[in-house]
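>> received
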Amino acid sequence: MHASTIVFDYHFRCDTKREFRFTVTLDADTLEHVRTSQAVPPDWTRLTKQRCEVCRLDPLEDEYCPVALSLVDLVESFGELFSYTEAEATVVMKERTITAKTSVQKALCSLIGLHMATSGCPSMLPLRPMARFHLPFATREETIYRAASSYLLAQYFLKKHGRIHELDLAGLHRIYDEIHAVNVGLAQRLRGIALGDASVNAIVLLDLFAQDLPLSIEDNLAEIEYLFGAYFK
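>> returned
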């Protein structure tokens, strides 16, 4: 029997001597973020505020944007910090602990990405397998490898169950085009409420990758094709 939850503990120690701790708890079956706060969400999280162009939710059924809702605590904690603030970030998982010396912006990028992927937003659902095997502070190359691998493994399971599937990466392009639209909408929300720029710029970093991946994934994968030489023998 597997555990009922998956937990990621993030600890930030900034050069301003401030410390922050965040725990992301996922339902092990659905991989959805388990939200524990009972407070009334702020107005900027309402679905109708800066609603994304690709949003498929019905405002009559969903009062709040799931992505915005998942980021309330982060934005309120980091709202006054700026991107360039240095930080030592540690992530404790069941399997391992990872520590990185980086900027608040880059550290937040990892945490925000995890929140968004598990928020319940329909556009983010394809990222849940990557969230299950979350790799904090991943490099651009690592993320491209993981995104392509996750997508192609999904195609394998679709084929196994007799569903429509594809072996090229056109579908991955569509997924990241939609993620880009969500990032744009979220950044617009945050620009209206954040005092510092760390949260907004973390979204910008995520969006740069979302825009870049569809354009360059074939080139980047070509660069690592040699790693799979054993399969051709």
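>> The longest strand covers residues 5-14.
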